[in-house]
């Protein structure tokens, strides 16, 4: 759809920070509950019916936003982080916070014959690794 309309397509990759430490210390059942709470919180933060969120691996999520430019996508990303922060999910085994935090990799592009959704996922993944390398609990846009 974004390719046909030449409109912005944005991808946000989300990693739950230090989730292995959460699972190792609270157990896998509590880890599953934590991921469910994170997923529900993230889902409830998205308002448009065209916004899409899914689990993307063990402790990662992906958000796809159609017709959303960079500034709009950054607002959504900040909202996702802020809303989860307010949930106050305890994580006493994280070296960066006493509650569950997120690291986000964000990208926006206008798809054409040379750029597709897979490219956007790769760009967002690269941004995510930059943010993780800078200490996590932050947003990086590439």
Kindly describe this structure.
By secondary structure, this protein is of the alpha+beta class. It has a single domain, classed as 2-Layer Sandwich (Alpha-Beta Plaits), CATH 3.30.70. It contains five helices and five strands, in the order H-E-H-H-E-E-H-E-H-E. It has helices spanning 2-5, 19-26, 28-45, 70-87, 117-133; strands spanning 9-16, 52-55, 60-66, 102-109, 139-141. Strands 2-3-1-4-5 form a five-stranded mixed sheet. Helix 5 (117-133) links the parallel strand 4 (102-109) and strand 5 (139-141). Helix 2 (19-26) packs across helix 3. The longest helix is centred in the first third of the chain and has 18 residues, at 28-45. The two termini are 22 Å apart. The model has no long low-confidence stretch (mean pLDDT 93).
Task: Give the topology, please.
Blueprint: H1 2-5, E1 9-16, H2 19-26, H3 28-45, E2 52-55, E3 60-66, H4 70-87, E4 102-109, H5 117-133, E5 139-141
Parallel strand pairs: 4-5
Antiparallel strand pairs: 1-3, 1-4, 2-3
Helix pairs in contact: 2-3, 3-4
